[in-house]
Design brief:
Elements lengths: L1 H10 L15 E6 L4 H10 L5 E8 L4 H11 L10 E5 L11 H10 L2 E4 L14 H16 L5 E7 L8 E3 L14 H20 L3 E6 L2 E2 L13 H12 L1 E3 L7 E2 L2 E2 H14 L9 E5 L5 E2 L4 H8 L4 E3 L1 H14 L12 H6 L8 E3 L9 H5 L1 H15 L2
Parallel strand pairs: 1-2, 1-4, 2-3, 4-5, 5-7, 6-15, 7-12, 8-11, 9-14
Antiparallel strand pairs: 10-13
Helix pairs in contact: 1-6, 2-8, 5-6, 9-13
Organism: Bionectria ochroleuca
Keywords: Phosphopantetheine, Phosphoprotein
Protein name: Thioester reductase (TE) domain-containing protein
């Protein structure tokens, strides 16, 4: 990880041009990941912002616009405004972001802000599997340095980038290579944070890291928390086995935050952030300031899934999961087997959970996020969306 960081920060090709001051009332945004779970909500909020004049979405594949439209519809989001949104087929790891040179040059003249959301979410892969994403960050930094306005780079990072740090984690860049969770995903996110911090300061472009905690399902009727993630996998497996763990071990205090609230927060941050004058990278945590205990939700979950569901210890539940893994049970029925190491890690009593410290940016949602009744209603909604 450290060698890769040194190599890329040494190789990155940047310009030494002087940047013009952008018109903050007419923002032109380059957005990646607009067809994804979080990106769809960010796009929905950005297109409503009066300060945003135009959004250019970089998509993998020529069908990006169709996938984007279908994703917005399935999530119950607003109709996209074709006069405000342009879709371009791109490959971030390629020179010029995989764009035609004329399109690339046109964007360097227009873009004031870059919002980078696109990232592969898979906790079973090694760091090497994320090399394409890491190179993509390098290309975006090069792009920002070539823009007329010295585009502000907003990078959506993750709590996984600092997931090995116990207790409260501050809104700052961490230079310890031991900081991330020991997964390729977490390591790649920390590596990207370090690259952005180093190169943006060197070039003189503003940068903001939005370090996001556990993203949950939406508060709306439509949409869905992706089924391959740990909670829906746990509940689908529990329903199949007929048992539900009474505790989540070292992760028993849940500080998740609904995806639509995350999308609104990041959009607000992009639209309202003033450019830093001190040359430092800003770090903003997007996570719930309070936790809800698993025990406050367990009986709501049990009643929704299967009224006769038995509540067992976490150790018993993990043992049953191990039996499924040993037998080679179908992962479609017991999807938690794909995340066995994660669930086994919950039993580690020596591990103190990571908690992202948050500033005043979450004040408007604090009462909502801390309400047990609201959390229970959200859980019922998510279970209905999963069809469990």
């Amino acid at each position: 990880m450290e060698k890769l960081y040194r190599d890329i920060t040494r190789e990155v090709s940047t310009s030494n041009k002087k940047f013009e001051s952008p018109d903050t009332a007419h923002m032109s945004i380059l957005l990646t990941g607009a067809t994804g779970h979080l990106g769809s909500y960010i796009l929905d909020w950005l297109q409503r912002e009066t300060r945003v004049s135009h959004i250019y979405c970089l998509n993998r594949g020529a069908d990006g616009a169709q996938r984007q439209s279908a994703g917005q519809k399935s999530r119950g989001l607003g109709q996209l405004d074709p006069s405000k949104i342009t879709n371009l087929t791109a490959n971030l790891a390629q020179p010029y972001l995989g764009l035609k040179l004329e399109d690339y040059n046109r964007l360097t003249e227009q873009i004031t802000d870059v919002v980078h959301v696109a990232w592969k979410v898979d906790f079973n892969l090694a760091l090497d599997s994320f090399l394409e994403h890491i190179v993509g960050v390098q290309r975006l930094l090069e792009f920002c340095s070539n823009t007329r306005f010295g585009a502000h780079l907003f990078f959506v990072s993750s709590i996984s980038a600092v997931g090995s740090l116990a207790g409260n984690v501050a809104e700052k860049i961490y230079e310890e290579w031991r900081a991330p969770m020991p997964t390729g995903y977490g390591q790649s996110k920390l590596l990207a944070e370090r690259m952005i911090d180093t190169i943006s300061i060197r070039v003189g472009i503003p940068a903001t890291i939005c370090r996001v905690g556990q993203i949950a399902g939406p508060t709306s009727v439509a949409g869905m928390w992706p089924k391959q993630e740990w909670l829906p996998s746990l509940l689908a497996t529990s329903k199949e086995l007929g048992v539900l763990p009474e505790s989540l071990g070292n992760n028993n205090g849940l500080d998740w935050i609904p995806v639509d609230i995350v999308g609104q927060m990041i959009s607000d941050t992009v639209a309202k952030t003033t450019r830093q004058q001190d040359g430092r990278t800003r770090v903003l945590h997007v996570s719930s300031p309070t936790t809800v205990d698993w025990s406050d939700l367990i009986y709501t979950i049990s009643a929704q899934l299967k009224p006769e569901m038995k509540i067992v210890t976490l150790q018993t539940w993990v043992n049953k999961l191990h039996e499924c893994l040993t037998r080679g049970d179908n992962a479609a029925q017991v999807p938690a087997v794909k995340l066995y190491d994660f669930f086994l890690g919950l039993l580690d009593s020596g591990h103190t959970a990571t908690h992202l410290e948050v500033g005043g940016q979450l004040k408007p949602w604090e009462d909502l996020l801390s309400s047990k009744d609201v959390q229970r209603s959200w859980m019922k909604n998510w279970i209905r969306q999963w069809g469990y």
